[in-house]
């Protein structure tokens, strides 16, 4: 009996041990399953983020490829061909996700990259034009000019190195052009809230935290539209290019090898006209934009030189009226001058000269002009102080043509476009764009993960050059 009882006891103990072993194994299995699930979930999140990032990268690469194609294969008859194709490809799908490229300009959301030439380049603006902008006082405008000018003497209310050093700043004015829009915020008197408005990350898109009132920074009015402050009007990224609208290098009229035959092959005109144009281009203080407000016969004989000199000072806006009156009266109000002289150019030829020729050496990139095909009425009105009716008329003239304006000659006959207005305006206007900022959001099909890239690209060279790259 005792032997049998002991046997049963041993069997009972073994059973308990087995049950405990099974329970422990089950617990371990469950724990391993939870850990494996978490690791798999984390792995899926990593994969989803990578898919979103590569979807965004695919969108950026698509935009760059389109830009390079249009640089290599321009369409001189369609100034909007590039813009239209960028818009058409602003959304795309891969097997693993999508990309979406859009931006906001003048509180309107638009498909495609942001054209930096739709804004005024701060490196081309004078004090008066800067003061046209809301909340920019004389002291701030002078400080901006002091930051970028080559001298070290401050303006009356400006600021140079000693001002910043006296306030414990670790930096001083560059005394060269601004390299980026964000650099403007280093200038004395410029507040980030004024420059950025609601667009705190400067991605030109309305993000959730920029449309939720006071719930998260920055403060916004929660109206469903992006108020980008001064950054909606100003840029430092746009650049000039040595390429003409035809895709060829611009013809330098000052170069000794450029003769009348070469000029006539590039721009259809008579030999007397070519001779007169070369004579003017090689004269002191010549500016090709003066052809829009003064007859070539006047300019080539030196009678319009005072106007050319005056318009160079119109960058700040102070001498714009003097420039127009001294050089433009004959061409705009006295049409008989153009009819009498065979040397004068018709508006279409003037536009071609501006599109294809130059009198400057392109040794390095310079601040870019404003593209009349993509700029806004707000820029024309609030920066260049155009009469609202005239600014609206320019936009209407542009929007009436699906191909845009292929030459500045298209605005010369707009009612109200006097020489006083046209002379300073022609100095900063163009019909081409070379620098674009691509705010691209990639989204993965796996869990909806998102990733954003903001890339600024200069397409004037091949391959295109990336000027700025960040992932907010």
Could you give a quick summary of the protein structure above?
The protein is an alpha/beta fold. It has 17 helices and 13 strands. Strand 12 and strand 13 (465-470) form a beta hairpin.
Task: Give a verbal description of the structure.
The chain is α/β, with parallel strands linked by helices and 472 residues long. The protein folds into three domains: 1-115 and 430-472, GSPII I/J protein-like (Pantoate--beta-alanine Ligase, Chain: A,domain 2, 2-Layer Sandwich), CATH 3.30.1300.30; 117-235, Ribonucleotide Reductase Protein R1, domain 1, CATH 1.10.40; 251-361 and 385-427, no CATH class. The chain is built from 17 helices and 13 strands. It has helices at residues 2-72, 81-88, 127-131, 138-148, 161-166, 192-196, 260-266, 271-281, 296-300, 305-312, 320-327, 329-332, 336-340, 347-356, 377-382, 388-399, 419-426; strands at residues 91-93, 97-105, 108-111, 114-115, 120-121, 234-235, 251-252, 357-358, 370-371, 429-430, 435-444, 450-458, 465-470. Strands 1, 2, 3, 4, 11, 12 and 13 form a seven-stranded antiparallel sheet that branches. The chain has a two-stranded parallel sheet with strand order 5-6. A two-stranded parallel sheet has the order 7-8. Helix 7 (260-266) crosses helix 8, helix 10 (305-312) runs antiparallel to helix 11 (320-327) and helix 11 crosses helix 17 (419-426). The longest helix has 71 residues, at 2-72. It starts with a helix and ends with a strand.
């Amino acid at each position: 009996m005792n032997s049998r009882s002991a046997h049963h006891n041993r069997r009972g103990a073994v059973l308990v041990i087995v049950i405990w072993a099974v329970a422990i194994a089950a617990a371990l299995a469950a724990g391993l399953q939870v850990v494996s699930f978490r690791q798999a979930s984390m792995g899926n999140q990593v994969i989803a983020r990578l898919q979103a990032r590569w979807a965004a990268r695919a969108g950026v690469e698509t935009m760059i490829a389109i830009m390079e194609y249009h640089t290599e294969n321009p369409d001189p008859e369609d100034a909007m061909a590039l813009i239209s194709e960028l818009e058409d490809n602003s959304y795309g799908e891969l097997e693993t996700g999508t990309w979406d490229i859009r931006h906001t300009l003048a509180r309107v959301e638009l498909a495609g990259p942001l054209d930096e030439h739709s804004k005024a380049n701060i490196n081309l603006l004078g004090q008066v034009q800067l003061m046209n902008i809301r909340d920019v006082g004389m002291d701030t405008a002078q400080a901006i000019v002091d930051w970028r000018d080559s001298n070290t003497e401050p303006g009356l209310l400006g600021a140079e190195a000693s001002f910043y050093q006296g306030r414990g700043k670790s930096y001083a004015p560059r005394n060269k052009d601004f390299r980026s829009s964000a650099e403007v915020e280093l200038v004395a008197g410029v507040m980030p809230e004024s420059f950025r408005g609601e667009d705190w990350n400067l991605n030109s898109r309305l993000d959730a935290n920029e449309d939720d009132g006071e719930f998260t920074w920055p403060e916004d009015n929660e109206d469903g539209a992006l108020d980008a402050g001064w950054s909606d009007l100003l840029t430092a990224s746009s650049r000039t290019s040595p390429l003409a609208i035809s895709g060829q290098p611009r013809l330098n009229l000052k170069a000794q090898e450029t003769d009348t035959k070469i000029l006539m092959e590039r721009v259809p005109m008579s030999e007397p006209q070519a001779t007169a144009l070369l004579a003017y281009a090689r004269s002191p203080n010549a500016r090709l934009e003066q052809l829009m407000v003064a007859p070539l016969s006047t300019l080539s004989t030196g009678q319009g030189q005072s106007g050319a000199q005056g318009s160079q000072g119109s960058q700040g806006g102070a001498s714009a009226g003097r420039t127009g009156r001294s050089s433009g009266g004959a061409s705009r109000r006295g049409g008989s001058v153009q009819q009498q002289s065979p040397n004068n150019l018709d508006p279409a030829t003037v536009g071609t000269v501006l599109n294809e020729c130059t009198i400057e050496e392109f040794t390095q990139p310079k601040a870019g002009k404003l593209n009349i095909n993509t700029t806004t009425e707000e820029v024309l009105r609030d920066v260049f102080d155009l009469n609202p009716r005239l600014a609206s008329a320019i936009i209407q003239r542009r929007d009436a043509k699906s191909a845009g304006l292929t030459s500045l000659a298209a605005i010369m006959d707009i009612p109200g476009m006097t020489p006083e207005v046209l002379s300073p305006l022609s100095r900063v206007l163009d019909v081409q764009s070379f620098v674009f900022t691509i705010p691209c959001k990639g989204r993965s099909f796996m869990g909806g993960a998102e990733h954003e890239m903001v890339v600024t690209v200069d397409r004037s060279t091949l391959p295109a050059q990336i000027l700025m790259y960040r992932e907010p």
